[in-house]
Amino acid sequence: MVEARKQMRGEALRSILPMVKYSGSNVDQAYRHLVSLRASVINDCKACITTHRRDARADGWDEKRILRAEDWTNHRDRFDEKETAVLALTDAVTHIDGYESVPDELWDSVEKHFGTQGAHDVLVSILAINTFNRLSITTRTNADAIKSTIEFDHDYDATL
């Protein structure tokens, strides 16, 4: 078994960065936090959970808000309709298994809140974090090496 794997660098890594840049320019940071936290927990990507907890905290999110986003289905009352639509789409796309995975009603809800282009922009955010989750898991990115983190960022069993 391979103990450690080389981190992706160079052109291979640069090839996927445009999605992140696009998302950063077109999707509000609060929605990107919701997407990144939820998808990273679903995929059990420790490096991405650590990174996105740190980033959300840096933007003023407290630990309760972060944990609620990660486990939103048990805290639905803490999210408005737009946030719920984003989180539900994140779940559907992250768990995708055929055409029935993203029901028309769900897509329509996202479009209602964000418009067609906005729904596509949110989708790019979901695709980007899922890509990075898979990259970090496959290459065994070391969550302990992520800078500017606190104990909470690495507590993968934390609950409310």
Automatic annotation (TrEMBL):
Pfam family, one: CMD
InterPro entries cross-referenced by the UniProt entry: AhpD-like, AhpD_core, CMD-like
SUPFAM superfamilies: AhpD-like
Residue ranges annotated for the Carboxymuconolactone decarboxylase-like domain, each copy included: 22-89
GO molecular function, one term: peroxiredoxin activity
Coiled-coil residue windows: none
Name of this chain's protein: Alkylhydroperoxidase AhpD family core domain protein
Phylogenetic classification of the source organism: Bacteria, Bacillati, Actinomycetota, Actinomycetes, Mycobacteriales
